[in-house]
């Protein structure tokens, strides 16, 4: 499924940060915000909370582009069109932090195999369609809730938040503007 940016939008000279992600619905975003506020109140990490409209789990990061290469969106969409992966349920049931990035996150104590399978399938398809990906040394699925933290914690359990993952999306953001993310494509799972 394709939507969003056209050629004129892509050539506007602004910064485009592109990535594929899992995108929670509004009801889950509200529950994540409540859990995040509770954890922050209990553990005082400092820093700044992420706005609920920015909650996501990054699946594949394509990079920052200025200007956006004309064929990149078409190639990324073609790669996503080729992915076949089942829908799955994800439980956000722990909070932790990354020292290097100074963020607190929500994640899963036991991520489903289908999550890793989707990550791998999308990565292979992007490679086959010659879409550049900023490779990570490991896949650590997480949803950032707090940035610029001054206190780090080892992963601890939180009351589980059930997430029925039924699609993945392609996001375009302008990191310099702080504007909300723009969903420029959606692909159903299952």
Automatic annotation (TrEMBL):
Keywords: Hydrolase. It comes from the Bacteria. Its EC number is 3.1.4.58. Pfam families: 2_5_RNA_ligase2. It catalyses: a 3'-end 2',3'-cyclophospho-ribonucleotide-RNA + H2O = a 3'-end 2'-phospho-ribonucleotide-RNA + H(+). A motif (HXTX 2) lies at residues 142-145. InterPro entries: Cyclic_Pdiesterase (IPR009097), RNA_CPDase (IPR004175). It is an enzyme of class 3 (hydrolase). The keyword Hydrolase applies. Gene3D superfamilies: Cyclic phosphodiesterase. The active site is at 56 (proton donor), 142 (proton acceptor). A motif (HXTX 1) lies at residues 56-59. The keyword Transmembrane does not apply. SUPFAM superfamilies: LigT-like. PANTHER family: RNA 2',3'-CYCLIC PHOSPHODIESTERASE. Hydrolyzes RNA 2',3'-cyclic phosphodiester to an RNA 2'-phosphomonoester. HAMAP family: RNA_CPDase (MF_01940). Belongs to the 2H phosphoesterase superfamily. ThpR family. This is RNA 2',3'-cyclic phosphodiesterase. The gene is thpR.
């Amino acid at each position: 499924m394709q939507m969003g940016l056209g050629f004129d939008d892509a050539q506007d000279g602004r910064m485009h940060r592109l990535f594929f992600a899992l995108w929670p619905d509004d009801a889950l975003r509200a529950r994540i915000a409540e859990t995040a506020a509770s954890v922050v109140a209990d553990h005082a990490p400092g820093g700044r909370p992420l706005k609920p409209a920015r909650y996501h789990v990054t699946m594949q990061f394509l990079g920052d582009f200025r200007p956006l290469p004309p064929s990149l969106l078409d190639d990324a969409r073609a790669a996503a069109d080729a992915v076949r992966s089942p829908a799955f349920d994800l439980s956000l049931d722990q909070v932790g932090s990354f020292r290097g990035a100074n963020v607190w996150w929500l994640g899963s104590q036991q991520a489903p195999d289908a999550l890793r399978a989707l990550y791998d399938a999308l990565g292979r398809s992007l490679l086959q369609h010659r879409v550049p990906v900023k490779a990570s040394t490991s896949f650590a699925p997480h949803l950032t809730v707090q940035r610029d933290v001054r206190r780090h914690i080892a992963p601890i359990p939180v009351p589980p938040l059930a997430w029925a993952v039924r699609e993945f999306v392609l996001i375009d953001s302008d990191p310099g503007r702080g504007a909300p993310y723009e969903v420029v494509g959606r692909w159903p799972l299952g």
